[in-house]
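User: These chains co-purify. Model them together.
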Amino acid sequence: MPVIELIAFALVVGSLLLVLALFVRGSFMNRRERRREALATRLRPAAVALVDTDTEEPAPELSGLENQVFASLLRAYARRVSGDARDRIGGYFEARGHVDEQLRLLRSRRVWRRATAAFRLGDMCSQRPAPELLRALDDRARDVRMAAARSLGRLGVVDAIEPLIATAVARRLPRDVAALALIDIGSTGVPPLLELAVHEDPRVRSTALELVGLLGDAGDAKPVLDHMRDPAAAVRAASAEALGRLGAAESRDALVRALDDRVPVVRATAAQALRTTGGRRTAEALVAVARGDVFEPARAAAESLARLDPVLLVETASNPDAGPHLREAADRADL
Amino acid sequence: MSDSASPREQPVVLAADDDEDILDLVVFRLERSGYRVLKAHDGAEALELALAEVPDLAVLDVMMPKLDGFELTRRLRAEAATSRMPIILLTARAQDADVQRGFEAGADDYIRKPFSPDELRARVQAILGRR
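Assistant: Joint model of the two components:
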């Protein structure tokens, strides 16, 4: 038989074997997936019973795939419950060795194993892995750092606030991933964030203040007011934005003063923030900015005025010297 | 509430959420607390069940397909049979504006997600106990 025909024959046989191998693998995966689904249906009531705080039923004894499926059900429930239910889930994962197993995988040489472990630990409701997750924020792989950040947020680790901000500022973590983790930590994170508002790096100060606005309430406005005099414009803008979100009336004067800031973005942010604090003097100050300032502050001021005092907006917009922003806002107000 | 109570003697609670995991947890907690629970996986199914069965209370997710929790609350308030039915909204949103929107739509209370099953039971018992 000529060589060329032998090669062709070998290629055909090789292709057939590859197709057969893929078919067998596909069938195996499908069967395994169906088995997982059937197990999930069977184990779901036991998982719900374990999560529920009142039940005295012991967790079932499981092995192999059952154990994996039960753990994945509990991790899914962990994302949906708070309070004692989370303690019960954490107790289960610690007692059954799942936390230790994931901590071992977090030290694996393979990136995907470390990332998966970092992710899973966040849904195990145990504080024990917090130190290792904090170390994982310095992992060489971005996926691991992201998973660790998400888990630190899910576990509400207050000690993670500064490293999360520092890692995001150093661009080793996407800003939105860090922000979501910090938001997950919740209002318990406000005092440490206020401590970071005097950090030497203005990027850290501005991020911390921005987050105070997202996590705090009107009672947190007073310490933010001091930062309206920060030498860095980004920090003053972040403070103004935070004050707008916190919505405390006591921040009104500082925001009105910020309408005269030398940096346009601070004036624009202050104008926008004033729509939540209101007040007669505010409306007059906003008219002045909307009438004479550069594009961004003027537009923000006109839009805030439309929200605060639409009648004054329409009256002012009818004047010949009103300027385009007031007229545009008045057109949109459609009174 | 005893377990031997017949279905008609048990207070009926409608639980609506498109997240099967949350629905599991809500239904388990309420059934364990002695309520008969009607399950709905979207707003339209919840409306249909509420009008057909007129439950004693409804626990509704805000973000549901077909009909969100706000709109569903408004429609239930507009129907004579369900206009006085207590409604608790389950909301994942942290914004006060959404809570306010829920109250404006006619909700009686709200629970934030992630939620505590104990808190859910306490709120349901508090509302039904007042009636």
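The longest strand of chain B covers residues 12-16.
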